[in-house]
Amino acid sequence: MTTMVEINNLRKTFGPIVAVDGVTFTVEKGEVLGFLGPNGAGKSTTMKMITGFLTPTSGTVRICGHDVQDDALAAKTRIGYLPEGAPAYQDMTPASFLTFIGQMRGLSGDALKRTVSETVEKVNLQSVLDQPIETLSKGFKRRVGLAQAILHDPEVLVLDEPTDGLDPNQKHEVRTLIRAMSEEKAIILSTHILEEVHAVCSRAMIIAKGKVVSDGTPAELEGQAPTHNTVLITVSGVEPAVAHERFMTVKGVKKVEDKGKDGELVRLRIYPDDGQWILPDIGQYAREQGWKVQELYQDRGQLDDVFRLLTTSKQALS
Amino acid sequence: MERIRVIFKRELAGYFATPIAAVFIVIFLMLSGAFTFYLGNFFVRGQADLVPFFDFHPWLYLVLIPALAMRLWAEERRSGTIELLLTLPVTMWEAVAGKFLAAWCFTGVALALTFPMWITVNLLGEPDNGVILASYIGSLLMAGGFLAIGSCISALTKNQVIAFVVSVVICLGFILSGFPLVLELFSGWAPQFLLSAISSFSFLTHFQSISKGVLDLRDILYFLSLIAFWLFATATVIDMKKAE
Q1: How confident is the model over A133-169, as pLDDT tens digits?
Q2: A121 and A95 in a common domain
Q3: Do residues A80 and A122 both lie within one domain?
Q4: Do A58 and A126 share a domain, yes or no?
Q5: How many independent structural domains does chain A possess?
Q6: Does A14 touch chain B (CB under 8 A)?
Q7: Which of A70, A169, A191, B77 is 20 to 30 Å from B60 at the Cα level?
């Protein structure tokens, strides 16, 4: 694996406010790193420093070995960046805007034309090529922003909320595009849509108050959820209290939680010891007792819960 | 260099893609004509020169150039494109220079379109065309000075109205710095060398000496170094205020 982005102890303060507080990580080729965090956690500021727009208060950013501050042009050549809100020159058309970006990236002549038309095809902009950008819908504007970021086929792609404001179909298209490109690039994207992390990211990082509070695969993150590997069961033909008591005797069960009674149906959430896999045992036990199992499934844990846990806990605040 | 050219082209096309170009040029031509003939008594003077025409340029520029310059950086900042522009492989001075040169070239186009004035005076009499050429060059240099000031003020704020008003005031200061209005602010307490330094900053003095037909290197250097200084200030301001 090749390390494409190296970030070392990055810090940014605005007066007394610490926006980013000692962030260190690396991104390899082929990785899609998702930045998660509440608004104001420092995601955008970190991205602005990675792309060389903001100068860090301290710490370094290296893109393919080039320092973003000391060797800015070499680093910037290798980055494609979609800033927050996908800004573009509103009075230009997508065609002239992308041509401008291509020229700024050093393309000209046939190569420029070819690159622009290929990119336009990738993000489906053909139908609006000659309309002023200010007249386009939010979805098209976002795609124009994405097009300028990937135009020069950069090794490192930094996308600040790439699917914000898109409808579900457009979101799907953009995610497909990101996945398709991910093999050859290192991609960093920020989002607060947690399902997106599952859809595109190979790694997720939660940032709160300028610090990294969690870094791992989406599955590892889910593993931190309090409900990770709990079993939800709905049975009939038994009183809740009895079922509760009996399930506690099954091997590997730590806690049973009543989720309410609905007519004949009794709902329970069963917590395992140390996240063990207890689903088959629970199902078998219920059947042995002669109860009718109406529903039985394993909860992998909600990223939302992990997110809330990590970004609002006292640990994160201190 | 190539990137300055790309930015320059985009900016210049931007003026003509919006009504800015048409409005600016039409107003500039109308006002310069009206001033020359009505206030400047072009015909009554009975002299074959363009002195009444050029005399009003500093005052025309005072209002029109800050209006042109106010969007240079304030607009980039407001729309967020500044982040796009400065994360492209371009240095700060290339971006500053490219945008400035486009605006300067645009005022050059507006100035060039006053050529009917030159034709008129040549039809009516036998003016000294050398003086007229020098005056045009002087006027263009002065416009550059105004623009560079406006560029720097525009980088300070994302509010274009503030950029406009502050630029007008600073430009007025530069026009009048040789006059009692400005000098009396300093005359009570400032040493003599400072007073003469301030009065030597006057746009009017330098412009008038050029428009007498003498292209003195010192006057040209004055405007060029003024432009360079304010563009340097522009780059510094952008760098400092990027985060806002």
Answers
A1: 999 998 899 999 999 999 999 999 999 999 887 888 8
A2: yes
A3: yes
A4: yes
A5: 2
A6: yes
A7: B77
Q: Which two tokens stand for residue A245?
A: 């008591």
Confirm whether A318 is domain-assigned.
no
| Å between B194 CA and nearest CA of chain A | 36
Find the CATH number of the domain harbouring A27: 3.40.50.300
B97: exposed, middle or buried (C-beta count within 10 Å: 0-12, 13-18, 19+)?
buried
Q: Does B89 touch chain A (CB under 8 A)?
A: yes
The helix or strand, by DSSP H or E, that contains position A22, with its residue range, turns out to be strand A17-28
Above 0.90 for ipTM, yes or no? no
Tokens of A81: 């960046």
Instruction: Encode pLDDT of A5-31 as tens digits.
Output: 999 999 999 889 999 999 999 999 999
Contact state of A87 with B242 under an 8 Å Cβ cutoff: no
Is A87–B80 a contact, with Cβ atoms under 8 angstroms apart? yes
Task: Look up the domain containing A192 and give its range.
Answer: 3-222
8 A C-beta contact, residue A214 and residue A34 = no
In percent, the amount of chain A with pLDDT more than 70 equals 98
Full-model pTM: 0.86
CB contact under 8 A, B89 and A104: yes
pLDDT one-digit tens code per residue, A169-188: 888 888 999 999 998 899 99
- Beta-bridged to residue A231, according to DSSP, are A270, A298
